Amino acid sequence: MTGLAQVRQALHGLQQAGLRRTLRTCHSACAPQLTVSMAGQDASPMLAFASNDYLGLAGHPALRAALIEGVQEWGVGSGASHLISGHYAVHEALEARLAASQAAHIPQAGALYLGSGYLANSGLLPALAALAPSEIFSADLNHASIIDGCRLARCPAQVWPHQDLAQLAAQLQASRAQQKIVVTDAVFSMDGVIAPLAALLALCEEYDAWLVLDDAHGFGVLGAQGHGALEHAALHSERLIYLGTLGKAAGVGGAFIAAHADLIEWLRQKMRSYIFTTASAPALACALLAALDLIEGTEGRTARAHLQDLRTSWQSMALPDCWPRLTSPTAIQALLLGENQAALDLSHALWRRGVWVPAIRPPTVPAGTARLRITLSAAHSLADLQRLQHALQAIHREGL
Question: What are phi and psi of 11, to 5 degrees?
Fold first, then answer.
């Protein structure tokens, strides 16, 4: 069998298993109302519950203006990696602002700005493990970037079952590693569950471990000021290593790591995904500074309150019992379908009615737990939720 024949056979296998993903093309700016096309189809208007733009900032006029001003001042590209010549004053200002956002929770906090959350997780764990002989303890529903970071760390790694703190405690107690690293999503991206943050920190204090929190889906949304999971749980410790992404609630792109300034300096020296990549465009940092102003200000508080109202309304809406809702206190709301084809069929039925809700299947979620992942945005209205509800009810009446 030739190489291409093997590729085609593998693609056919994905198709048969209901695991082949479909690329959709957006023809308008990120918003609940989008114009979208799929291969071989004309673009059509869609009501989207598919993005992570939780505060509706991706198209905000203030961010647009800041980005344009940033391009005028700083040009387009950074020209090099941060440690060569690609680190600009506006990058430094952004890192200082991000460190300040976590300063109430991490003593002597510093911050490192990177191009994506994937770069952050895949680089952080290997650099941290290089400090001393280490063992990593990873939550079993962690994001793929954390899993890859564990592999790249090239040290023993154990997986602890979802929310099973007794098992984690037993693993930590049995470990003889010089350095222990506990890593978890703060908000699990496929079901919206918040990790037991205070209890995790207590275990790390007891067993002398770092606690790495990937707050990709909490930064901007959780906490009175939108500072994320540490603010939400009122945590404070020098053991905390906090990762927030900036392409979700912040509406732009990139990620940051906040930790004690000494550890941040170590990461700057040793983190390969930071050292060996071109720095993000400085104009993006200008847009992110504007986003932080909105997140921390009146507009951010209003958006978070509206998001909470939408979540409460959605959870009270009548839906067919055959598609159970997963309980979540966040903007991530999911309907459990179980089988891959069932999730695809329901997603396609909604698409035909002009509503876009992605079907999530393995390996993103465990086998047998395929679902529709509904993500709410402050840019949604109650009428948008009612349209989704009515579409689901109509599909059920028609016998799907």
Answer: -65, -40
